Amino acid sequence: MAVESRDLGKSQCDFMLNDHETNELLRKEKFDIGIVQICDCCGFGVLEILGIKKYIATYSSSMVLWVNSYLGIPQSPSFIPTLFSSYTEQMSFFQRTKNFIGVLFEYYIMDQMLVDGPQKSVDEILPGVNLNQRMQDAALLFINSDELIDFASPITSKVVHIGALGRTTPSKPLERKYLDIFDSAKRGVIYVSFGTVVLSHNMPIHLKKAFLEAFSEFPDINFIWKYENRSHNIAEGYDNVFTFPFLPQNDILAHPKLLAFITH
Q: Is the model's pTM score more than 0.90?
């Protein structure tokens, strides 16, 4: 698995560094600063090609222990669950032991795929560029979590939590088919969507049934569910559940009768 991950990381980086047409277009923009998603450390190599010397690293989830090691932050598996763990910060001795082993596994796999693989590609094209060092030298590290609700974790002045940071877009009036759902709800509407990565139609059937049974317990509330496959007829027999493959999320969230948003 580690070898496959490393090879995948290298092949992806080879493609990025050798995409001369795209890199030339980006170089002409003369960007002042770069932001690298460290799920693919090859981005630091791209910045070298573009001549961008000032950069910020970012990660799309909570703080992970393998990143800590590059920033000089102590790893604390005794009270910080690993990325792939289901534990909380309150662990038994046995759970802490498993969590510690999980840290070693996480570090090995992540390092092989996200750093070692791209590093082999960078060594061939940009000799002397060390991705580990580039990560350490980033001016800041943006973490996609809210420090008030995330697990307590040691950080440095480089770490900036940006959870829930986003761009607001003015809402537009809803189409009649959506307005009818809001108008017919006695108490209001709950919107259910797991985005474009976690597709509802791929969920195990027992989880879908669990959602539907829970929804049926609230007949005075209508549920709008982003469900991508109409042919499943998943909401058949549930009068207060309405499914659509695509939904105007921003406009639905702005409606005054919306009670809650269920997402991941």
A: no
